[in-house]
């Protein structure tokens, strides 16, 4: 099966601009997660979708971040306006369903650089 | 979430077994122990998980102590491609993963 796909792989934007990251989970996976790693820090959870609904968005840093999951398929994470501290690698992961006792599959990430 | 303690770094000779320990003394009864790794510039990769029995798959073996307060991930024949940061993560199925600092494993020729 195809893996989790994220694009773009890299994005360089200026402070104040808007960037939209996209994640295509594995087909049929209900759960979709966003994580990020900022420079020198640990990987941190951002939010969790179950199908099209936000199950847990406790990790979203502030209201400049907006995540959507259209029709329970792909997801987008928009940062508007971007700040310097938003730089980092953003990972998406998916798993089949709640209670699925197997690991999550992660994408390769989007490296975001805000200058 | 249960807190974990892992060595910051470890070295292993290529072809030898790599044994990576993890303490998770506050793990709750319904939490599994998951192991992931992150190879440089890639996304985290699931390795193995277990509840209380030892587990083995094509990538690794997982040994969990009887009291479930610690576990050891074993890579039986480490290769250079196993150089990565390894994370031990107690987790209930479907919940968010809490990554700590992990163990940086360096496999040397």
What does this 3D model show about the protein?
- The complex is a heterodimer of chains A (115) and B (109).
- Chain A is mostly beta strands.
- Helices cover 0% and strands 49% of the residues of chain A.
- Chain A contains no helices and eleven strands.
- The radius of gyration of chain A is 13 Å and the shape is globular.
- The termini of chain A are far apart.
- Chain B contains no helices and nine strands.
- In chain B, strands 1-9-8-3-4 form a five-stranded mixed beta sheet, with no helix packed on it. A four-stranded antiparallel beta sheet of chain B has the order 2-7-6-5, with no helix packed on it.
- In chain B, strand 3 (32-38) and strand 4 (45-50) form a beta hairpin.
- Chain B is globular and about 40 Å long.
- The mean pLDDT of chain B is 94.
- Chains A and B meet through strand 4, strand 5, strand 9 and strand 10 of A and strand 3 and strand 4 of B.
Give a short overview.
The complex is a heterodimer of chains A (115) and B (109). Chain A has 115 residues and is an all-beta fold.
Largest sheet of chain A: 7 strands, mixed
Number of helices of chain B: 0
Q: Kindly name the structural category of chain B.
A: mainly beta
Tally of strands of chain A: 11
What percent of residues of chain A adopt helix (DSSP H or I)? Answer: under 10%
Task: Indicate the mean pLDDT of chain A.
Answer: 93
Give the N-to-C terminal Cα separation of chain A. 37 Å
Instruction: Give me the strand/helix succession of chain A.
Output: EEEEEEEEEEE
State the strand order across the main sheet of chain B. 1-9-8-3-4
Work out the radius of gyration of chain A: 13 Å
The fraction of residues in strands of chain A falls at over 45%
Question: Main β-sheet of chain B: number of strands, strand sense, barrel status?
Answer: 5 strands, mixed
């Amino acid at each position: 099966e195809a893996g989790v796909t994220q694009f773009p792989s890299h994005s360089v934007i200026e402070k104040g601009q808007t960037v939209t990251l996209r994640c295509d989970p594995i087909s049929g996976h209900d759960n979709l997660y966003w994580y990020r790693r900022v420079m020198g820090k640990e990987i941190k959870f951002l939010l969790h979708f179950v199908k099209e609904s936000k199950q847990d968005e406790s990790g979203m840093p502030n209201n400049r971040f907006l995540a959507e999951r259209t029709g329970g398929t792909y997801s987008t994470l928009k940062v508007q306006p971007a700040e310097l501290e938003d730089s980092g690698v953003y990972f998406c992961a998916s798993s089949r369903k709640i209670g699925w006792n197997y690991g999550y599959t992660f994408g390769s990430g989007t490296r975001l650089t805000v200058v | 979430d249960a807190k974990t303690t892992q060595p910051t770094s470890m070295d292993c000779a290529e072809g030898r077994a790599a044994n990576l320990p993890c303490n998770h003394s506050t793990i709750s009864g319904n939490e599994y122990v998951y192991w992931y790794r992150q190879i440089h510039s890639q996304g985290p990769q699931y390795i193995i998980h277990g509840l209380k029995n030892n587990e083995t798959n094509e990538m690794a073996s997982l040994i969990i102590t009887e009291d479930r307060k610690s576990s050891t991930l074993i890579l039986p024949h480490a290769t250079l491609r196993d150089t990565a940061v390894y994370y031990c993560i107690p987790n209930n199925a479907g919940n968010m993963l809490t990554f700590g600092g992990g163990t940086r494993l360096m496999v040397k020729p």
